[in-house]
Specification:
With 358 residues, the chain is an alpha/beta fold. The chain has a domain at 1-92 and 193-293: FAD/NAD(P)-binding domain (3-Layer(bba) Sandwich). The chain has helices spanning 15-24, 100-108, 116-126, 153-164, 196-201, 253-263, 269-274; strands spanning 6-11, 32-35, 64-65, 77-78, 94-95, 127-128, 143-144, 180-183, 185-186, 188-189, 192-193, 210-213, 217-224, 227-235, 238-250, 266-267, 281-282, 317-321, 332-336, 341-342, 353-354. A six-stranded mixed sheet has the order 12-2-1-15-14-13. It has a three-stranded antiparallel sheet with strand order 8-18-19, covered by helices on one side. A hairpin with a 2-residue loop joins strand 14 (227-235) and strand 15. Bound molecules: flavin-adenine dinucleotide. The site of flavin-adenine dinucleotide (FAD) has 31 residues, from helix 1, strand 13 and helix 6. Residues 11-17, 35-38, 56, 79-82, 86-88, 90-94, 217-218, 251-253, 256, 260 line the site of flavin-adenine dinucleotide.
Length: 358
C-alpha cells in the first residue's frame, strides 16, 4: 500500500483556505495540499478596487442566481468568488469585525471560545493597522488595512449627515467596540486590492512542503472507518484521488462546503436517499438554514455634480446601528456607497445604472 502523500488537504483557496494553507505549512514537516476549482492568475480588474462590481459575473465568480425569493418573486445574484483568494478576490474590501455583541452572542449560545475577547488575539495577529489603538488593533500582520485617504466628498457628506441625525462619529468603526458611523478600514494597499491570496498564500508559494492545485473541482470525500482518508477531484478531464494521512479541511465556502459534504453522503439521510446518494453519516442540518445578508438600497441623486469615484472601493464608510433603540446591540450595518448604481428592482435617478440582474 502506498503511503499518503499529504498530511493536510485543504479544499478551496478562498479567504479561509489561503490562511489555513499558509499557517499549516509553517511546519516544514507538514505536507500540505491546497485544491481550488478556479484559476491561478487573477484578472487585471481584480486588483483595481473600484472595479469589484464588474467581477460578480464572469470567470472570477461562480455567477449563480438564487431561486425566486418569496418576498420579491424575483431571483437575485448570489456572488461567490472562485480562483486563488476566492471571495476575498472579488469582494468590496471593507475590513471590519462587526460588533463585539455578535461574537459574544455566539459564546452565550454555547460556542465556547468564540467570544470577542477570545478572538481578539487572532484578529490582531491577522492585521497591520497603523495609527489605531494597539490594545484593540494589530500591527505587523499579513493584512495591511486602513481607511480611504482622502475619503470621497460624497462619503464625507454622508458621515456629516449621520452626525447631524444624532449618530456618533466612530473613531475606529472596524475595531468592533463602537456604534455609529465612520470610515472603515479597507483591504487596499497602494491603491490595489489585497486579497487573502496576496496576503497569505503568494508569499509562501515557494515552500517545498506546500502544493497548490488550481482548475481542479473537488467532487467527493472518501471516508473509511469514520475518517476522511482521501479527496477526489477532477482536473483537465482526469479524475485524481489525493490520499491524506492527517486531516482534510473543507474551506469551500458556506455553500461549497455543505455541497461537498452532501455529495459525499454526509447530511440528512432522507434527503440524500431522495437524490440517490448513499448515506455515510446521517447528519441533519447540513445544507439547511442558510442565513445571508440582503442589501436594501436607498438611492439619492446629488444636488450638484460630484467627482466620479476612482481609486477606492466605492463604499468607504459604514455604520453599525440599532433598528430599534430598545435593542441592546446594533443589528444593522449601513454602507455608504458613492457609485451611481441601484438594484434593478427599484427606481433610481436617471444618471444611475441598474446593477446585475438575471
Ligand atoms: C460580492 C461580495 C462582496 C463582499 N464584500 C465584503 C466586504 O466588503 N467585507 C467583508 O468582510 N466581506 C465581504 N464579503 C464576504 C467575504 O468575502 C466572505 O465572507 C469570505 O471571503 C468567505 O471566505 P471563505 O473562505 O468562507 O469562502 P470563499 O472565499 O468564497 O472561498 C471558497 C473557495 O472554495 C472554492 N471551491 C468551492 N467549491 C469547491 C470545490 N468543490 N472544489 C474546489 N474548490 C472549491 C471556491 O472557488 C472559492 O475559491 C463579500 C462577498 C462577496 C461575494
Amino acid at each position: 500500500m502506498n503511503m499518503p502523500e499529504h498530511d493536510f488537504i485543504v479544499v478551496g483557496a478562498g479567504t479561509a483556505g489561503c490562511v489555513l494553507a499558509a499557517t499549516l505549512s509553517e511546519d516544514e514537516r507538514a505536507r500540505v495540499l491546497l485544491i481550488e476549482v478556479g484559476g491561478a492568475r487573477p484578472l487585471p480588474a481584480q486588483s483595481v478596487p473600484s472595479l469589484w462590481p464588474t467581477l460578480l459575473q464572469g470567470p472570477a465568480s461562480w455567477g449563480e442566481f438564487t431561486v425566486k425569493q418569496a418576498a420579491t418573486e424575483t431571483s437575485t445574484l448570489l456572488p461567490r468568488g472562485r480562483g486563488l483568494g476566492g471571495s476575498s478576490a472579488i469582494n468590496a474590501m471593507v475590513f471590519a469585525r462587526g460588533h463585539r455583541s455578535g461574537y459574544d452572542r455566539w459564546a452565550g449560545e454555547g460556542a465556547k471560545g468564540w467570544g470577542f475577547d477570545d478572538l481578539l488575539p487572532y484578529f490582531k495577529r491577522s492585521e497591520n493597522a497603523a495609527g489605531r489603538d494597539p490594545a484593540l488593533r494589530g500591527s505587523g500582520g499579513p493584512l495591511t488595512v486602513g481607511p480611504a485617504a482622502p475619503a470621497h466628498p460624497v462619503i464625507e457628506a454622508c458621515l456629516e449627515a449621520a452626525s447631524e441625525t444624532g449618530y456618533a462619529r466612530a473613531a475606529d468603526i472596524s475595531g468592533g467596540l463602537e456604534e455609529g458611523f465612520g470610515l472603515a478600514d479597507l483591504n487596499i494597499v497602494h491603491g490595489r486590492r489585497q486579497s487573502a491570496a496576496d496576503a497569505y498564500l503568494t508569499p509562501v508559494l515557494d515552500r517545498p512542503n506546500l502544493t497548490v492545485v488550481t482548475d481542479a473541482l473537488v467532487q467527493g470525500l472518501r471516508i473509511h472507518g469514520g475518517r476522511c482518508r482521501a479527496v477526489e477531484y477532477r482536473t483537465g478531464g482526469e479524475r485524481v484521488t489525493a490520499d491524506c494521512a492527517g486531516e482534510v479541511v473543507l474551506a469551500a465556502g458556506t455553500i461549497g462546503t455543505a455541497q461537498l459534504l452532501l455529495l459525499s453522503g454526509i447530511g440528512p439521510a432522507a434527503h440524500l436517499a431522495d437524490v440517490g446518494i448513499r448515506t455515510v453519516l446521517d447528519l441533519p442540518g447540513v445544507g439547511a438554514a442558510l442565513h445571508d445578508h440582503p442589501i436594501a438600497s436607498v438611492v439619492f441623486g446629488a444636488a450638484r455634480p460630484v467627482l466620479a469615484p476612482k481609486s477606492s472601493n466605492l463604499g468607504e464608510a459604514i455604520g453599525l446601528v440599532r433598528s430599534d433603540p430598545s435593542l441592546d446591540a446594533p443589528d444593522l450595518q449601513v454602507l455608504f456607497v458613492d457609485a451611481p448604481t441601484h438594484l434593478p428592482s427599484i427606481k433610481g435617478p436617471g444618471t444611475a445604472t441598474p446593477s446585475a440582474s438575471p
